[in-house]
Amino acid sequence: MNKNIISIINQKGGVGKTTTSINFSAGLARKGKKTLLIDLDPQAHSTIGLGIEPESFTASITDVLAKKKPIKG
Hints:
Layout: H1 17-30, H2 45-49, H3 61-65
């Protein structure tokens, strides 16, 4: 099984990271590829862009990465 990791990163704001990430993920999904979009932005713009309210989560990415809290699906 071939797995690829694609990261879209840039320290500067306003360069289109969120828009690129959402559209790239959606394009791959439309082609039948399994995708996982991880939103590490503290402002949760990718999450909001997908129509998900960040307040609905009980854990943040900090809880998962630093405090080792499990992700529940």
